[in-house]
Amino acid sequence: MTDSRLDATDPRTLPGFFDALADGDLLGGVCAECGQVLLPPRPACYACGSRDVDVEPQSPEGHIFAYTAVHAPPSAFAADAPYTIAVVELADGGRLLGRVTVDHADVAIGDAVELAVREPTAAEQEAALEYETAWPVHVFGPR
Ligand SMILES: [Zn+2]
Q1: Sign (positive or negative) of CA dihedral 127, 130, 136, 138
Q2: pTM of the predicted structure, to 2 decimals
Q3: I need a surface site. Which of 43, 85, 116, 141 has the fewest CB within 10 A?
């Protein structure tokens, strides 16, 4: 059983998850009871409710599970529209939402993609909450 007391350095919290991601480490929670992969990690499993969640490195490779184009984004990202977002199923079984670096017309379900991490743009920093401004941004590109 993992310790249920968390602070913001724990990768089962968003600050801890993004700190690891900034170092290039994609971490997932893996439920010790049912095996569900939780991305980002959480202190409790959303499949079975268990609080016995381990933190394990996750493969950055996956495939497009579902995708769409964003034509009317938040105003800070208006210049980027339209852009593609997708739910990506990663090789270790977790699913993660993120932007795709490919035009919507050139994306198909099942396409192989890989996660990359970059610094937030000025617009992303402006749109972020104060404690999020240093968080890295993950994007999916073809592989
Ligand atoms: Zn579970």
Answers
A1: negative
A2: 0.89
A3: 141
